[in-house]
Amino acid sequence: MSRSTRRLALGVVLSLLIVPPLAAAAELVPHRAGYRVGLAPTSRGPVSEVRGGLVLELRATCEGWISNQRLGFAAIRDDGSNFSYDVRFSSWESRDGTELRFSVTSFEDGGLSEEVRGHARLEAAGGPGRAVFVMPEGLELDLPAGTLFPTRHLEALIRAAQSGERFITHTVFDGSGTDGLSNVSAVIGAAKESTQRQRWPMQLAYFGLLSREPVPNFTIAFELDEQGILHSVTLDYGLFTIEGRLDRLELLPAPECP
Question: Does residue 255 lie within any of the structural domains?
């Protein structure tokens, strides 16, 4: 279960298609978004009720992007038993997309389930790199050329949508743990016009980098606008599916950089 929730870093969230260092960046807007979380109408399985909340926060500094995310929910099974889950993710990513610091803490039924901390660096944008974990101690992971970190991935999704692309695949390291390196395939729907800005429905499928299985480890769907704000989020856990609907949105100040 925890793998899917941690992947909200996107987050939401790439290829063997290398993003050139000088490619025009999407204009992400610093913000804090809160979502009401519940069981999706399409959910099929042994879970009858889910209640909770999700907060996604993206802050800008002159040197990089700070992401803070928390998802917590309580659920009831069909047999009347219940369980709860709480995951907290924070990261810092450099403006050029070559450095990432990350921390993940997850709890199940009130008890600590997992802690992950570390940092990753690419030799250059589009180049190979390495992730070094503090927890679990001593673990290191090679990152292939073309790997993107979460904020660069988000920017790449927006650029692809603005260009009219409908299917893209990238290699992503999101800092979510030892399985945090994935091939991520994104299907992008037609733009939805709103009174404020364009947004696109997207579905992301995560495949293990070395896996030959045709079925993804998990999928995430959301509506993403051109400023990097998610207007809905759907997580499919296999046994049940939850969705989060945007309930409140606060735009945060951008730094004044030289």
Answer: no
